[in-house]
Amino acid sequence: MRAERPPRWQTLLAILIWVVLWQLAATALGHGGLFLATPLQTLRALAVQLPTADFWHRIAFSALRILAGFVLAVICGLLLGAAGARWRWLRVFIGPVMQLIRAMPVASFVILALLWVRSANLSVVVSFTHVLPVIYAGVLGGIADTDRDLLEMAAVYRMPAVRRLRYIWLPGVFPSFCESCIAAMGMCWKSGVSAEVIGLPDHSVGDALYRAKITLSTPDVFAWTLVIVLLSAALSALAARGLRWAKARLCGEVRK
User: Fold this and answer.
1) pTM for this structure?
2) CA–CA distance, 64 with 68 (Å, rounded to integer)
3) Which CATH number do you get for residue 166?
């Protein structure tokens, strides 16, 4: 059973309360925002960055690579999940690797990956590997949750494979797949930017975040963090909308 979504005004009120608490904490710490920038200082730093070409270049550089890793992970996760559900031996064989990737810290994997790929492509590899187990598990779970009675009925009535895929498999797999994609999008950004902070590829968001840290530009650190959070939230919402549209088209459902 899914939790009921709170009214928008309650969400906005909760955000406002947290911003006020943030302001009070930053004021209490003092030192001109050296240890904790205020919301206003963060917005000012962001306003300075927004008109610059370097800001948008960094956004495009990181976003293209992180989203490339995400798309590759979705494709491979779908294929491996479907194959793992079909052949038990493959599921058993892949299982330890997926568990290893889930358990491995991002920093350890980034250091290893730097031995194999250029720092410019590091976020592609890291986002791909950390999203793949989530998509794989979502596809496996969706296939396992598909109504077996409907599948048996389809077999009895000799429903064509295409119709079986559209009206039984896709509606069964899509809810779990959608949830895993939305969760993976946020994870993708966190792991991708973490890789950039360690690998420091030029013209990346992670490189800007690291430079702001070593120069003690705390407002810039908070501004770039805010940008990462907003990008992750916006792309997660866009992914959710796109997946709902795809489900409506593929499964013949009416969108709400």
Assistant:
1) 0.84
2) 6
3) 1.10.3720.10
